[in-house]
Structure formats: C-alpha cells, structure tokens
Amino acid sequence: MIMMMMMCSMWMWVVLVAIAGALLVLRSILKNVNWWLYESKLGVKQYSLPPGDMGWPFIGNMWSFLSAFKSKDPDSFISSFVSRFGRTGMYKTMMFGNPSIIVTTPEICKRVLTDDDKFTPGWPQSTIELIGKRSFISMSYEEHKRLRRLTSSSINGMEALSLYLTYIEKNVKSSLEKWANMGQIEFLTEIRKLTFKIIMHIFLSSESEHVMEALEREYTALNHGVRAMCINIPGFAYHKAFKARKNLVAIFQSIVDERRNLRKGYLPGKAKDMMDALIDLEDDERKLSDEDIIDIMLMYLNAGHESSGHITMWATFFLQKHPEYLQKAKAEQEEIIRRRPSTQKGLTLKEVREMDFLYKVIDETLRVITFSLVVFREAKTDVNINGYTVPKGWKVLVWFRSVHLDPEIFPDPKEFNPNRWNKEHKAGEFLPFGGGSRLCPGNDLAKMEIAVFLHHFLLNYRFEQHNPNCPVRYLPHTRPMDNCLGRVRKCPSTTT
C-alpha cells in the first residue's frame, strides 16, 4: 500500500515536471515567434539591432506598456528595459503591431526628428484610422510642407496671435467669473471646454454651444482610443473611438457642405477662419477635397484644445502646490499691471512676451507632465545610429518621457521647479511640441493661451481642490481621476 502511494506520488511529480517543462518550452517558442517573423528575415543585420525584447506573438510589449501606464509608475515600462539591457538609449521592441526601436536620449531623439531624409512619420495604422489618412500625421514630407505653409499662418505669427489675444482674454475672464459662481466643478473639464471654445472660434468662427458640446464629447471618446489596443469590438476603447471619428466626420462634412453652398455663384472675400481658408485654397498644386479638409480640421481642433487644456490645469495645480512660485508668478503679473497706462483695457502681446517667469512655469509644466509621451517615425532606409541598425520599415518611437525625466539632465526630475529654466538646455533635451519639420505649428498659440489664463487666475482667483491626493491616470493623457474636482474662489486682488 505504501509502495503504491509512493509510486503514485512519484508519477504525480513526473507529470508536474513534464507539464512545467512543456510550459517552459512553449513559452520559449512563443517568445521567439516575433524573432522568426521580423528579426530572422534581416540576415546578418539582426546582430546589429539594439538590445531589447520583442515580447509575445503579435501583442509584443503592449500588455506591459498598458500595465505600466495604468499603474502608479508609468516609467517602469522603460525602466525594465534599462535594468535588463543597460542605458543604451535604444531598445528593440514590438509595439502597436509593429517591430520598433524605442529611442530615449536627447541626441538620438533629435536626430530622428530632424532627419527627414532617413525618417518619415510612422504612426500606427490604428491611429491614422482615427485621426485621418489625410491629416499631417500620415502625409508625405512634400505635402506636409505645402499644407503647413498654407495653414500655419492662421495660428502662428505676430499678426495671428495679436488677433486672437483679445478674444482669448475675454473668454478667460468670463469663464473664471462663471466658475466662481458654480460651486464645485471638474476644473479640467471646464478648462477643456474653454480651450475648445477658443479653438472653435479660430478654426470655425463658431460659438454654437450645441455644435461645441457635440464635437467636444466625440473628441473625448476619440482620444481614449488613440493609445488603446486596436480591438474594434463593442466595449473596447478603440471601438468607441472609431464610432466617435465617424460622428466627427459627419459633423464636419455638414459644415463643409454648408460653406460650399454659400460659395455657389460667388467667391467670398478674405477667409474668416481656417475652414474658409482650406475650402478656398488653390495654389500651383491642387484644391483640397472634402476628405483633406475634414481630416486636417479634425486634427487641428483635437491638438489645439487637448494639450492647452491639460497643461493649463496642471500649471494651476503646481503653482498652488508651491506657494513660493505662485507668489513670484503673481508678483510678475502685478508688475505688468502697474506699468500699464491707465487708458489700456487689456493685455497686449508685448506684455505677454514679458511674462518671463510665467513662461518658465509653463515650460516646467510641459516637461513634468509631458503631454505627448511619444511620437512615431519610420525608417525610410537602413539607418546606423551609435553602432546599432534601425532596419528599413521599422518604426522608431521617440520617447519624450525618458528625455524630460532624465535625472542626468534634470536633477530631481519629478520635482516641479521653474527655476531650472534659468539656464539654457541643449537641443533635444526639451521636446514638448516635437521637433524638426513636424514641430507642432500651434505651439506659440497654445503657450500664449495658457499664459493669458494664468495671468487672470493669479491676479484674481484661487482654486480649492476637493481631493488633493486624488490618484492620477496616465492614458491617454496625465490627469487626476476626478478631473481635478474643486471650487474656484474669487479673492481680493489687483484688477485687470
């Protein structure tokens, strides 16, 4: 009897060991599927790839990426590469369905962003499907250069910024006054509504509450799917985002149709907004189709309110967390008011340009938050960087978070400290708006919008956060999970 029990026990151990061995073999096979699909085909070039981990078949490293960014430590994703493979600055991986190289140092990031001969935009197909095949993120260098030249004048340059300053200031003042009388609000939600109203005026000359609410609601769903896994099944973020894109396209198409109908029989004078400019656009190349116009507008309106809304909220948040910086920023704004002629009613562009410390606050917020954690490029040919090969057709992920939170560049990198901008930084060390020919065309407008808001907030208001220790969510963008719930209070101050 005892012998039988011993034999049964032994066989059970044999079976368990066999199962464990089979699982290890299966794991090894699965971990090598991506090598067989992508690396083995490179021949001898595979031996000059950067170190890294291609992850699981087809999924690659997406689970670990999403897990890290849904945790309290999003930077653990890159830290795992550094701890396993060293500080090489380049790591092979499988992300968003493509074999990829992640780059994490200023020098390499700068090269990838500025070398248009070797690299082209390489956004995932799922992102292109959401933002638009005719938007800037997927068009050729020549077409992008042409349309950027024809559209950027509407949002950058002294004339455009001066034109929008009065409108921005009027809406900032009225919004702050309104919020102070609303009781408890989601501060981030209200700021996003404000920035969306401003960008709608600039691009569509529209202040229709109905249209704005419909568009803003769909944009929220769209953005939740941009960095989600491409699973177009009901219940998943990407599926909701894809439906949101269809709704956005329908709304924009109705606006385009209306504008085109107004043009029947006559050609209007000077374009009043970007939609008019795009419809009337005609140069040596060609006129834009409805699809071109809709994708460009969809892209611009999204980029034009998401980043400025979030950064405005975080800049306000950080200043209130650091009274010494708040007082310094407020003193600067009070000095601007003191120097102002008594006949002057509002801000001038010259005064905005003189907000030296406030712009350091904005830059520091852009660095700490890093609104866009990564941009995508694709190698047009085999490229050698620091002895490693980036194969033709592979994606290159320019990982801004690694640059902005590098302790060797920015000591105590997660500490908010505007004074670190008292010195100049090298090219590539600060990339909040990207770089090279694809640099965000609305960067000056966004920073001016944030500065105008902070100017009036610092002089006249304070914010009482309901839950100062609210957990933070990092996807699709860094934000408090309660959208910064609290109250805006008016306080005795200098009148603007």
TrEMBL record:
PROSITE patterns: CYTOCHROME_P450. Its main location: membrane. One of its GO terms (biological process) is brassinosteroid homeostasis. Pathway: Hormone biosynthesis; Plant hormone biosynthesis; gibberellin biosynthesis. One of its GO terms (molecular function) is iron ion binding. Its EC number is 1.14.13.79. Its cofactor is heme. InterPro entries: Cyt_P450, Cyt_P450_CS, Cyt_P450_E_grp-I, Cyt_P450_sf. One of its GO terms (cellular component) is endoplasmic reticulum. It comes from the Eukaryota. Heme binds at C440. Pfam families: p450. Keywords: Heme, Iron, Membrane, Metal-binding, Monooxygenase, Oxidoreductase, Transmembrane, Transmembrane helix. It is found in: Membrane. It is an enzyme of class 1 (oxidoreductase). The keyword Transmembrane helix applies. CDD domains: CYP90-like. It is a single-pass membrane protein. Belongs to the cytochrome P450 family. Catalyzes three successive oxidations of ent-kaurenoic acid giving gibberellin 12 (GA12), a key step in gibberellins (GAs) biosynthesis. GAs, which are involved many processes, including stem elongation, play a central role in plant development. This is Ent-kaurenoic acid oxidase 1.
